[in-house]
Amino acid sequence: MPAPPTPSFALNQTRRTFSCSQLLPLEADILWKIERGVVRTFTWNEEGRSITLGYWGAGDIVGQPLSRIQPYQIECLTSAEVSLLPANLWYQAADAMISHIQRSEELLAIIHSRPVNQRLLEMLSWLAQKFGREVDKGKLIEVPLTHQALSEVICTTRVTVTRLLNQFEQKGLINRHGRYLILCVKAQTLDF
What we know:
This protein is of the alpha+beta class. The chain has helices spanning 94-111, 116-131, 147-153, 158-170, 185-188, and strands at 15-18, 30-36, 39-44, 50-56, 61-62, 73-76, 80-86, 132-135, 138-141, 174-177, 180-184. 30% of the residues lie in helices and 28% in strands.
């Protein structure tokens, strides 16, 4: 039986580190398991507007084989350490792939929520659940997201996100911690 084709990068380099803003290489028969850090998968429309497809962290699986979207990219939002997962080992990642599908569907449901203030609050709640760390006042979302990035993922404008975040802060739903947000306990108990 002939050996499977070797991807363009060295297979013996099974663990790699990427810095913030770097793109993970895409191969038709390779998935990446995130060991540390946060990445986003994204595409863009005909006008060049970025469309976020998901945010992924430690334990998640990403890669071209999980998407039929073209163009498709994987960008590091923080420094990230990833492990190579070639096709002959995909069976080892079944749980992570199921989680990927579930998280994608959660994001799809959030994007279709109405009104926009609820959509933003649900997105912050999703981020806090996935990437949050318990602190005194709630959950610190340790993902470096700009107002523009939040607006892209929930399909609104940056100005609207800025206005809503200011309102959420005034109502005690969020606090700012440097460049990160804390989703307060009060916001976590709201019934969507």
